[in-house]
Amino acid sequence: MYSGGVMEERRDYVTLSLPAVLLPPPAAAAPSRSWRRRWKQLPRLQRVVVVMVAVGLLVGVALLVTTYLSGPSHSSSLSHTPQPSHLSYKLENNLTPPPVMVHLPESHQDKVETVPEEQALKDDPGHDGRDQIVPPPGLPQKRSARQEAVVAAMKHAWKGYKTYAWGHDHLRPVSRTRSDWLRLGLTLVDALDTLWIMDLREEFSEAREWVATQLNFNLNQDVNLFETTIRVLGGLLSTYHLTKEQLFLDKAVDLGERLVSGFNSGSGVPFADVNLYSRRASKPKWGPDSSTSEVTTIQLEFRDLSRVTGNPIFEEKASFVSEHIHKLPKVEGLVPIFINAQTGQWRSHSTITLGARGDSYYEYLLKQWIQTGRTVDYLRMDYNESVSGMEHLLAARTQPSQLLFFGELHGSTKNFVNKMDELTCYLPGTLALGVHYGMPRHHLDLAQDLIYTCVQTWLRQPTHLAAEISYFNTQPNNVDEDFYVKNNDAHYLLRPETIESLWYLYHLTGNTTYQDWGWQMFQGIEQYCKVDNGYTSIGNVRSTTDTKPKDKMESFFLGETLKYLYLLFMEDQTAFSVDKWVFNSEAHPLPIYSH
Ligand code: DMJ
User: Which atom of ligand 1 is nearest to the CA of 231?
Assistant: First the structure.
């Protein structure tokens, strides 16, 4: 578990003994007369030279000591920003970056060892994202049995996609055909880094070949800026970082240069859609505004594109949106789910939710702060304020089991509604990640309580699969169920969020219960979503006999769900440490920078 031991370790680092060179030598305070006499006897020129050498030496030593005291460059800027109380040692001596948590072998999983991040970064020459080819972790002989099962699932999904939907966005595994949405080979691009991480070389190389020869962005096609950014741009960038193949960066640049026109609005807040050929941006077909989570969940990718190309424009445009939203009024750090791209103002009366259209705004506050080496302090402050707002305004407990859930505030009256989307189950992972990076310790309690609820929404269904939306019972004298699902909300779309959070919690605590829960959920997927030619989302999680297959395999099933399962069951959790990588909203790992 994330233990108090970590804090004790940190306290040890504070003990600082000054280098001996700074201590005044006792003799220097009272030089003897013979020394004075000999000094006066020296020729004037010799005395000048000796004084100059001495001054030079002193300046050199002073410089060395200053560098030593200000610590490594990746953390020095923290000294300019207020830190949570248990990180205050940084302000005191600036010497020690936070520790990296490393897992011990299974028999010792109740203990957590810490090593200074500085050491970990030294061991990893690629932490700046520029000079590292990352070998796929978990070679076949080193995979756990559960990982093998996930790899078999990936191969099965890939085979169906390759046979019936190659180069198209989505496989329809029941009817053995395909569907298109962005027309960008979405499943293939979303799956690239998963194939690499799983070391599926043959599949990766056929996918690579398609990217090299077929992936074409010069399309007269309106695409959703957010979806294309997190899935396609994110997928290409992470594959570039993992493999260091220029091909993936070239493709990312071509796409980024088209997508960046999405920011051409009256306010700088992007429109929902962009035409890849004409580069014209537009509002969504279904309404006047952009979704808050969409305009705030493109920053990791655009910043990374700037950092690897040296062209600042992508980062500037994307950061401006976060800065703009930072200045807008909020409800205790919580945001409405719609914003107008022309005016840059919230749509009044719109809902506040941690689910659809709100979710990843909160996720990217934290992740951007991490990506930028914890140097952009308004992101940390907005994140912390939002978690306080969640606790105060959205958190509630069920009857009879006191399960924690986060409800929603609807309409102009901001009435509390006791519903929670499966999408909200990304939050325990984000909260745990925040605590790892020094956010208040009680966020981990929230994370643990919420993941328990999320897991219940899966495992209490007969299929062991969660519905898209659950409603929670808060009335003491009511029915005996903690939550219920309405007919229209009973579908499971192969979503990853709960599994994503299980990985973060296992990765950061070492508690194998999270793996066991994930395994049971994976069995649900295997039993009720697996079909002859792939995996299908289903329309009804409440019945084992009438699951109502929807005949669609979402790209995020390969990009996220199977990747997080694979990482969850991996014995060596250092391979994808959250101290080196920040995972975008579509599970594509990007490097952490120093600023
Ligand atoms: C993914 O495309 C991303 O995780 C996104 O942020 C929201 N949800 C889907 C998967 O459920």
Answer: 2
